[in-house]
TrEMBL record:
Part of the signal recognition particle protein translocation system, which is composed of SRP and FtsY. Keywords: Cell membrane, Cytoplasm, GTP-binding, Hydrolase, Membrane, Nucleotide-binding, Receptor. It is a peripheral membrane protein. Pfam families: SRP54, SRP54_N. Its EC number is 3.6.5.4. Residues 319-332 form the SRP54-type proteins GTP-binding domain. It comes from the Archaea. One of its GO terms (biological process) is SRP-dependent cotranslational protein targeting to membrane. PROSITE patterns: SRP54 (PS00300). The gene is ftsY. This is Signal recognition particle receptor FtsY. CDD domains: FtsY (cd17874). Signal peptide: none annotated.
Length: 347
């Protein structure tokens, strides 16, 4: 999973190390240090506060202290390569730029002790930049369900065939395992076969499903499912909706209507991790139409590049809640930013 992005992030680390090996800034011995310090520590020689921190004098002083200063020039090449690597791994341009800016600010002009390799320092900056994006907004689905008034109404949105139905079944299984009462609403009344497909999952899981005929009003189906949950003391309503292209105005209007009438507690956008930048674009448009609470990325077990997760979190400003990692009900992994970043940076 995410092998390609991991490989490329590893290259960034090496590239920074190599860059600095090419223009070594060796720490100087204690004795020599005293001399140089004497010379350059004269009060007049002190650089004004606003002077560039990576000036020659600053560099000399840092070297005597066994530090390295990373200049913008040192970083230029590796950061360019990193930006290209992020773009090739499905990180959207504004997101890649924001990561690069953050790393540049974090590293350039910084005095770093020689205790660790510069590659490690660069890796820390990269880790911070990605974690900041992924952890900016958090939502723990299980805690939310536990703490919220019942029934909790969850509506799923997204395009066709991304794994929405399977994801609803996986979540139903997850909730059932924690003794949470679940009702499924067959809100995809548009696609032939969608109701039967969901019914099969509900039967297999032993979960109640509320359905109307194909072509009926999805808001009415979900409304009935909520009424059922209230009168049968069920905790959560998981409502499917028809897969739709964000360009389909009527279906997007229908989604807005569902949202207006049902007033869901959570709207979850489902798309494929492997869809890359297409998924990012769709997440933005769905979020603009009916604001989402978070996203679930399916098929992360397939050859996904990993960048979509970072981009979707950044562009929607909403958390990634889960990753689909296979076709079985158990194949749903809670999205943990630390776990994700560690996987990307593991060597
Ligand atoms: N490998 C893998 N396959 C998945 C995952 N999630 C779903 N699938 C498969 O993707 C295919 C489509 O999933 P569905 O759940 O039918 O898709 P859908 O979004 O409900 O489709 P529509 O009903 O057309 O909107 C199925 O074959 C699923 O088994 C996943 O996390 N990993």
């Amino acid at each position: 999973m995410f092998d390609r992005l991991r490989e490329k992030l590893g290259d960034f680390r090496k590239s920074i190390d190599e860059k600095l090996k090419a223009s070594p800034q060796e720490p100087v011995q204690e004795k020599a240090e005293a001399k140089v310090e004497e010379k350059i520590e004269a009060p007049k020689a002190e650089a004004p506060a606003e002077a560039p921190r990576s000036g020659i004098l600053d560099r000399a002083k840092a070297i005597t202290r066994g530090e390295v200063i990373l200049s913008e020039k040192d970083l230029e090449g590796p950061l360019w390569e990193l930006e290209m690597a992020l773009l090739e791994s499905d990180v959207a341009l504004p997101v890649a730029e924001s990561i690069i800016d953050r790393i540049r600010k974090d590293l350039s002009g910084q005095h770093k002790k020689f205790l660790r390799s510069t590659g490690d320092i660069a890796e820390d900056a990269l880790r911070d930049a990605i974690l900041t994006i992924l952890s900016a907004h958090t939502l723990d689905f299980d805690d939310y369900v536990k703490g919220h008034d019942k029934p909790v109404i969850v509506v799923f949105t997204g395009v066709n065939g991304t794994g929405k139905t399977t994801t609803i079944a996986k979540l139903a299984e997850r909730l059932k395992e924690s003794n949470v009462g679940v009702v499924i609403a067959a809100g995809d009344t548009f696609r032939a076969g969608a109701i039967e497909q969901l019914q099969k999952h509900a039967d297999r899981l032993g979960v109640k499903m509320i359905k109307h005929d194909q072509g009926s009003d999805p808001a009415a189906v979900i409304y009935d499912a909520v009424a059922y949950a209230k009168s049968n003391k069920k905790d959560v309503v998981l409502a499917d909706t028809a897969g739709r292209l964000h360009t389909n105005v009527n279906l997007m209007e229908q989604l807005k209507k569902i949202s207006r009438i049902i007033r869901p507690d959570l709207v979850i956008f489902v798309d494929e991790a492997i869809a890359g930048n297409d998924a990012v674009e769709r997440a933005k448009l769905f979020n603009d139409a009916v604001p989402i609470s978070g996203s679930i990325l399916t098929k992360a077990d397939a050859d996904s590049k990993g960048g979509a997760a970072i981009s979707i979190a950044h562009i929607t400003g909403k958390p990634i809640l889960f990753l689909g990692v296979g076709q079985e009900y158990k194949d749903l992994r809670k999205f943990d930013p630390d776990w994700f970043v560690e996987r990307l940076l593991e060597r």
